[in-house]
UniProtKB/TrEMBL annotation:
Pfam families in UniProt: Fasciclin
One of the GO BP terms on file: macroautophagy
Superkingdom of origin: Eukaryota
UniProt cross-references to InterPro entries, sorted A to Z: Adhesion/Biosynth-related, FAS1_dom_sf, FAS1_domain
Protein keywords: Signal
Signal peptide: 1-31
Organism for this UniProt entry: Pleurostoma richardsiae
PANTHER family assigned to the protein according to its UniProt record, in alphabetical order: FI19380P1, PERIOSTIN-RELATED
Lineage summary: Eukaryota, Fungi, Dikarya, Ascomycota, Pezizomycotina
Entry's Gene Ontology cellular component terms: fungal-type vacuole membrane
PROSITE patterns the UniProt entry points to: FAS1
Residues in FAS1 domain copies: 31-174, 178-307
Protein name: Fasciclin domain-containing protein
SMART domains: FAS1
C-alpha cells in the first residue's frame, strides 16, 4: 500500500514522536512535480483535472504538504458532482490538503492521529490551524481517513512522493465536518436530544459560534432516562447543565483524555474529571461510547449519561455495562424506540418533518422547560421525529450523495 518516502514530518500525539525521530533525519530523494506524479496514476484523472484547474490552490502550496487524492471511483460515487461549483469545491480541495508531510507507513498499528488541513475559513472550519481529519492505522495494513458526517475513506495507495510532499490515494471523497446541527440530523442521530435541548435553552448560537470546542454529549437514551427530570427544570437550570458539557477553547482528542486529567468547562470554576479503565474512558461517571466525532468548530465525545455540574466527583462503576444516572429520575422512565425522545420537538422543522403549527396534534412536545416569561402568537413549526432517534443508532445511513454537498 505504501510507497517509499524518507520525509516523515507530521503532526502526531507526543507519545508517537519518539518513534519517528530516526526517519526524519534520513536523506531526501529527488521527486517529480505534482502534475508529473499525478499523470502516472491511471485512477486520478478527475483529481488531476481539478489540480490543473485550481492553480489558485495548488499553485501556491506551502512547503511540504500531504495531498489526499480521491480516486476516479471516489468521484463517480458522488451524486450531482459539479467541478465548477466553487463554493463547494474550494473548501473541499483545501480539506484534502494536510499541513506537513504525513507518512502513513510511520503511524503505528492501532494508533490514530488528528491532522490539520489547509481549510481554515472560519465559516467552514472554526478551529485553529485548519480543520481536522482523523487517520487510523487498522489491522491488515489498512489506513482509514475519517472526516465529517461519519464519512470514512480507505487508502488505496500511500506515501507517493512528489517534490512538494506526499500523496495519499483514497477510495471516497472526504466530507468537510459540518455544524453540530447538521451532524446530529444527518449522521449521528443519537445527538438529537442534546441539540433539541440547546434550542429549548436558546443556546444554539452560543454553541455554534464558539471556536475550538469539545462537546461531551449524552446520547438520546440518557435524556430518555431523565425525561421527567428535565421537564421539571427551569430554563436557567437546563442552560447550566448544558454549558457543563462544553469545554471551550480546547479541541480535546480522546487520546488526550488521560487518566486523572481534568478540563475546564464553560461554567466558570467547574471542571470535568477523566478516569480510565482498560480501554474505556469515563468523564466523571459517564462512559464515552463514541470518540472523536468531528464538527465544524471542534470535536464531540459521546457519553452514556448526562453530566451534572453539582456531582463532578461521582465515581463510575468500571465493571457495569451501564452507568447509573447522576440526576435523580422523576416519574417513570423508558428508553428505546417506544419511548418519547426528549427535546426532539424543540428542533426547527426541515422539509422532511411532519409538523403541526397548532398547540396539539403531531407537534405536541415530548419535553418542555418552564420559563419565567412567554410569548404570544403562533407557534413555530417543530420537528416531530428524526430518523434513528430513540433507537440507539449512533450513525444514520445515506450520508454520501447529494447530502454531503449541502453539509458544507
Amino acid at each position: 500500500m505504501f510507497g517509499t518516502s524518507a520525509r516523515a514530518a507530521f503532526r502526531l500525539p507526543t507519545v508517537l514522536l519518539a518513534l519517528l525521530s530516526a526517519a526524519v533525519s534520513a536523506p531526501l530523494a529527488a521527486a517529480a512535480s505534482l502534475d508529473s506524479v499525478l499523470s502516472e496514476q491511471a485512477n486520478l484523472t478527475t483529481f488531476r483535472s481539478l489540480v490543473k484547474d485550481r492553480s489558485d490552490i495548488f499553485g501556491n502550496l506551502p512547503d511540504q504538504v500531504t495531498i489526499i487524492a480521491p480516486s476516479d471511483g471516489a468521484f463517480a460515487k458522488l451524486q450531482g458532482w459539479n467541478a465548477k461549483n466553487t463554493s463547494v469545491v474550494t473548501p473541499l480541495l483545501q480539506y484534502h490538503i494536510l499541513s506537513g508531510e504525513v507518512a502513513l507507513s510511520l503511524i503505528p498499528l492501532g494508533k490514530w492521529v488528528f491532522a490539520h488541513t489547509l481549510l481554515d475559513d472560519p465559516s467552514q472550519a472554526n478551529v485553529t490551524g485548519g480543520q481536522n481529519v482523523i487517520i487510523t492505522h487498522q489491522p491488515g495494513n489498512v489506513v482509514v481517513f475519517t472526516s465529517g458526517l461519519a464519512s470514512r475513506a480507505t487508502v488505496l495507495q500511500g506515501d507517493i512522493a512528489f517534490d512538494g510532499g506526499l500523496i495519499q490515494v483514497i477510495d471516497s471523497v472526504m466530507v468537510v465536518p459540518a455544524s453540530l446541527e447538521v451532524t446530529a440530523r444527518d449522521a449521528y442521530t443519537d445527538l438529537a436530544s442534546f441539540l433539541g435541548a440547546l434550542y429549548a435553552a436558546d443556546l444554539v448560537d452560543e454553541f455554534t459560534a464558539a471556536s475550538n470546542i469539545t462537546l461531551i454529549i449524552p446520547r438520546n437514551a440518557a435524556f430518555q432516562q431523565l425525561a421527567g427530570t428535565f421537564a421539571a427544570m427551569s430554563k436557567d437550570q437546563l442552560s447550566r447543565v448544558l454549558r457543563y458539557h462544553m469545554l471551550p477553547g480546547q479541541v480535546v482528542q480522546s487520546e488526550q483524555m488521560t487518566a486523572n486529567s481534568t478540563f475546564s468547562t464553560s461554567i466558570s470554576g467547574e471542571r470535568i474529571h477523566v478516569r480510565r479503565f482498560n480501554n474505556d474512558i469515563f468523564v466523571n461517571s459517564a462512559k464515552i461510547i463514541q470518540t472523536d466525532i468531528l464538527v465544524a468548530n471542534g470535536v464531540v465525545q459521546m457519553i452514556d449519561n448526562v453530566l451534572s455540574p453539582d456531582d463532578d466527583n461521582v465515581q463510575p462503576n468500571f465493571t457495569a455495562s451501564d452507568q447509573a444516572p447522576v440526576f435523580t429520575p422523576v416519574g417513570s422512565t423508558q428508553t428505546g424506540s417506544a419511548a418519547a425522545t426528549p427535546f426532539i420537538s424543540e428542533l426547527p422543522c426541515t422539509v422532511s418533518c411532519t409538523v403541526s403549527t397548532s398547540g396539539g396534534g403531531a407537534a405536541a412536545k415530548t419535553t418542555s422547560v418552564r420559563s419565567s416569561s412567554s410569548t404570544d402568537g403562533a407557534a413555530a413549526a417543530r420537528c416531530t421525529a428524526i430518523a434513528g432517534a430513540g433507537l440507539g443508532l449512533g450513525v444514520a445511513v445515506g450520508v454520501m450523495g447529494m447530502e454531503w454537498m449541502g453539509a458544507m
